[in-house]
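for the recovery benchmark. tokens below, seq after
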């Protein structure tokens, strides 16, 4: 059996110019980057003005609805692009920076690692190397290599220390969401999951900005819940669209849902709740399994419909 020769292809052989070629291509194929970094991004625009400069791509993290700046460089990293990325993020109020280059110097990798270790949890910085590989004369294949990303061990230690002064209720919620994330991650059904925090909610992306799954843990009333949370920016069009699919949705979920239970609120929800007993470890485990099961169902059903929704 003959074997082909695996070789790299210069990125500029495929994309001659960063602004004219690579940036539009990446904006139209953002799913490739999403798979590499484990975050679901939705492109807002390209060449976005940031004072007298322009960011290559401005996207939104659909899991948090926060902005992401993407800086592209089809060459070895340099100080100029690092400074630009930080400047764009500050001007555009982005919480995440993704710096893409064909080659990262050791000094710039260390700089990104240092920034990730010394900034707050609200800020994340990714260094991503772009490569093209080819077997003999085949079409080039894309490969994104993660050179630097937030250090979860460092941030977990910081979160654990920060929980020392929390109320018992907040400590319980923090522990509950950590267990929930672990269980949900083990299913490998959802590509990216947020960092657990000591709060009553835990969000899961539906792949589009301004709408997501919001899980709740109400320790006062021993209730867990799962909601499709629709931000007011798209609520006027998205809720009626989903309501038109009500029979289809409830048949797929296997349960009747609460549609817009608080009509006076500008943000809209479609909800399902489960009563439990947080003082009983067995009931807590049951509640966690209930949430995991319905997150998979909600994600499967609603993400497909949301992707087909009319433009808002």
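predicted aa per position
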């Amino acid at each position: 059996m003959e074997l082909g020769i695996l070789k790299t292809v210069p990125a500029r052989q495929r994309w001659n110019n960063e602004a004219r070629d690579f940036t539009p291509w990446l904006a139209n194929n953002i799913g490739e980057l999403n798979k590499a970094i484990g975050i679901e991004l939705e492109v807002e625009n390209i060449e976005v003005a940031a004072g007298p400069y322009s960011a290559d791509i401005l996207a939104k993290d659909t899991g948090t609805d926060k902005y992401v700046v993407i800086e592209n460089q089809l060459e070895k990293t340099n100080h100029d692009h690092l400074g630009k990325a930080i400047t764009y993020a500050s001007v555009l109020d982005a919480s995440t920076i993704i710096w893409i280059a064909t080659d990262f110097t050791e000094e710039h990798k260390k700089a990104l690692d240092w920034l990730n270790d010394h900034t707050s949890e609200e800020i994340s910085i990714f260094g991503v190397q772009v490569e093209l590989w080819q077997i003999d004369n085949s079409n080039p294949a894309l490969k994104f290599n993660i050179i630097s990303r937030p250090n979860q061990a460092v941030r977990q230690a910081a979160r654990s220390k920060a929980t020392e002064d929390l109320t018992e209720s907040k400590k319980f919620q923090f522990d509950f969401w950590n267990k929930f994330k672990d269980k949900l991650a083990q299913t490998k059904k959802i590509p990216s999951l947020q960092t657990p925090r000591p709060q009553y909610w835990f969000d899961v992306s539906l792949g589009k900005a301004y709408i997501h799954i919001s899980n709740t843990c109400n320790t006062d009333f021993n209730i867990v819940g799962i909601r499709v949370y629709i931000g007011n920016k798209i609520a006027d069009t998205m809720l009626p669209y989903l309501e038109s699919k009500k029979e289809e949705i409830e048949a797929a979920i296997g349960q009747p849902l609460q549609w817009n239970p608080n009509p006076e609120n500008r943000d809209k929800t479609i909800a399902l709740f489960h009563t439990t007993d947080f003082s009983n470890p067995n009931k807590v485990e049951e509640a966690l399994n209930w949430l995991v099961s319905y997150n998979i169902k909600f994600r499967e059903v609603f993400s497909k419909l949301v992707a087909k929704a009319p433009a808002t």
